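Newbie here. two chains, one complex. Structure please?
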Amino acid sequence: MNMPTDQAALDALIRQRLDEILPQKLEELKASKTPSMSIIATKGTLDWAYPPFILGSTAAALGWDVQIFFTFYGLNLLKKDVGDLKVSPLGNPGMPMKMPFGPDWFKGIDWNKFLMPNLIQSNLPGFESVATMLMKQTIKNNGVATIDELRSLSKEADVKFIACQMTVELFGFTHDDFIEGIDYAGAATFLPVAQQSDVCLFM
Amino acid sequence: MNFDKELDAKGLNCPLPILRAKKALAEMTSGQVLRIMATDPGSVKDFAAFAKQTGNELLSTAEQGKEFEFYIKRK
């Protein structure tokens, strides 16, 4: 019996069968795998509160497994009351300053463009509160969900919330400051899950 | 078209129409049809992608003025 020839014939046969079977098998495996997403939320302002909860809740609605790791200022998004999140025009020249009321021509004016430099606006007493109030009204006018609503929907859809324990302590928070159902952990918990995630985002 | 349940998502913006639809479909049984009314122009592409990803069948999409109507069959 000539072994090398048999071996070569066998290899050729296996290669041929693999070419035939593998693409379909890979498709099946891909279709059966639940997509997953890991997000790191590091910002604690009203505007930056939206991306993690919008993408998290939507991914969950698509049937994905989602985890959001909240660290540094992102911890603010886990507080029991998210009603006091603010948005600041300071250092944020990309933020349009439009009025959420009045006739259309008035609402269309971007006050940031010509009224006064961003730095001066931001130093007016109470300007941050005014900007926050205006944004909240705009959010409401446009049928956009509140952060509290998006967070509840995310939670309901089994989006996993993880708070960074190190920054909880660093900023003097206690677990009582936050909503129920959060895991407290560190980078070593986040990374292995993130490694397996199809989508990984830093916000 | 016949439908078993109706969802009024008019005035709601991304991602609320999708989230509400997901919730409504979860309460239905396989083969039942959900009718969704929306005003978010982004919802046209979003419902197509949602159906494709979740395996629920998008039976039809219609536009009447500034309103959109979708029929989705639960898988």
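Moderator note: The mean pLDDT of chain B is 93. The first helix of chain B runs from residue 16 to 26. Thread marked as resolved.
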